[in-house]
Fold:
Amino acid sequence: MHEETVASSSAGAPEPAGQGPSGAEDYVQPRLGSGIAAKAASAVTAAVEPVVIRKVSRRRVLAVLGAAGAGAAAVGTGVLGREKSAQALGTGARGTPATVSKNPARRTAQWAMVLDLRRCDGCKGCTMACQQRHYLHADQTWIKVYKMTSSGGQTYHMPRPCMMCEDPPCMYVCPVGATFRNDEGIVLVDQSVCIGCRTCMAACPYEARYFNWSTPKPAPRMPGMPQSPEWPVPQVLGTVGKCVWCADRLPHGELPACVQGCPMGVIYIGDLVSDVAVNSFGDVIRIDEFIKKNDAVRFKEELGTNPRVWYVLGHDQSSVG
Amino acid sequence: MTNTEELSDVPELPDVRAASMRPVLKPGRWYWPVVGALVAVVAVGVVAWVTQLHEGLGAAGYNNHAFWAIYIADVVTFIGVSYGGAVVSAILRLTGASWRAPLTRIAEATAVVTVIIGGSFIIPHLGRPERILELIYRPNLSSPIFWDFVAVSTYAFASIVFFFLPLMPDLAMARDRLTAANRPRLARLCGTLSCRWQAKPSQRRRLDGAIGLVAIMVIPLAVSVHSVLSWAFTLTSRPWWHESIWAPYFVVAALYSGIALVIIVVAVMRRIWGLKAFITDRHLVRLGFILAPFGAAYLYLTIADFLPGSYVGENGVANVFAQVLAGRYALWFWLFVFAGLIVPLLIIALPWTRRAPFIVTAAALVVGSLWIKRMVMVVAPANYGRVSGVFGSYHFTWISACVTLAGVAAIPLLLLLVFRVVPILSVTEMEEMAARKEQEAMREGADRALAEIERRHDAGESLDVQVEEAEMTPVGRADA
Structure:
């Protein structure tokens, strides 16, 4: 249902003939060894096709996401995303040069989340897992669990990650293009560019952005994992940070920290192109069918931001927000 | 170099020239101590800002629920008050109001100084000010902030041009005076800046054309600056920021506070440098008359801004308005309404308070209250949690207070420094006005004489007429 947003081919690169709009070519940085993922791609996608809802093992979960991630062509797309936004702004290419994938079967993933609020008990496991992984201060709740009251007077809990809007207001108002949206629909902040004007915080209707008001929590250096928009650790003083859906993990078929840290299996992460999502239990759903069947809604739909997060409301909840 | 007086047919008015050069030649014994004190205040502000750079914006009281606060209010306030120069000068120039002449230099200088200070207040607002040049080399054209940057820089440049153009002839005059006073270095500077002004008719024609053009251009520029500034707020979906009325609302606020600041600066300058002979109480009262309609317009727009949102009760806006009108911000808001709108309007409206000291008090109330208003309108919607519906809070710290006070102190400081170099009155303009007035008076006298001759001729009386000399009006005096 969202393939049309995928269609835009990456800027400035020659498009191989014979590719449909949904099969926009992807780019691979050779060092990432995406060949393995590529091989896994076709097999696992095929395996997933008939699945509606079923239990799979942890390994399988990773594999499913790996399939979705294979098209994503690894972390390289993040670099490309930036390059694209830089080119769109007429400021020239940045980042390392990428190569064009020779495999037309590979497709760019379009990440999405489905949150089944019927299961959420507000334990904040997701928040804590995220803060631990990204070395965040306690007030930086990239995924925040709100206690809401329905019009019937009952309380329910609503985790709010970044909505990864298809029309992100934060990106449009950023004066220097520090916020960008990569080819997989992940909205990221380049903290080496951000000037810290906080207009994005004013613009985000979901209050999903967090400024570094004081010295960020120190983080141990990870070899081979430099600070990047996909891996914004440690945070940078005087810049804005936000939930990144663990964009560094997705291409490797790993679950984001919040999904993994949810003991109730509330959060499903998946790919709109292959129409598959999984939660921490290993439940696999067909996204399209699941959100239709359960009358899922998107938060603040009326603002036209087109979020990539769907909420399934419980029986005693009239609306979200 | 030809002497200015020889080429010019403008009558010599020694007192205007001497008075306008007084701050340059003999600024008074208080001058350096005051400048020193102001420099100290600015220095403390700089120290506070460096501390903030080191510790992060949290040290200035910012937090997740007050991501925009005092520095943005300062930016809007300082750029707002710079409108006074544009109005007093440009509009009065275009409408040919001759009483403006002794005020234009002060008004234009105030505009330049405040727009520069206001523009620089974006620096303490930023988390990474060292990256500010990215606005130039990697701009995002869809961002209102980028267009703010464009609009403010354009307006600042236009204000400087608008200040400089009418200054050129006066700088030539200053050069001659400084040479006579044996101040060769400053004289050379003034000579260079005057761009070889010799008061040739061709130069005068070109200068008049240029001033007229810039006066016309500076008005839409000024309007655009505050509109674009308001769009930094209204282009977000935040309750009370996302209001279509905000662009004109901002422009009127800027004009209102701008005229108020001109009143204050003019009153202070005429006192400290003894300009009462040229800037009379009537000038201040007239500026008060210009202030009043903008105050009334602002009151009207305030009502228009609040009524629909309070009436309908749509969640976000209603929550914010409830807090502004009757909640945690109510004290500040109503303080603004009374001190910033009702009291100043009454002072100008009532005949027995329509005097210079009261007008200056009203102006001071307006400038202070509008800063409070801007704080409320920046902080309240930022405080409002749009998912939780809970309000956060913003508290001043010594850092944000010192940085803001440094900006306030920088206005008199820069003005004192500017008038150490340039004549404080627009001498040429005042002399032209005087000459025109004199010509008119003479023409009137001649007309009267002719009429008398005709009358006597018709009546068969003697034609030996004694025409009384045309009355001379003092230069630049505002007459009733």
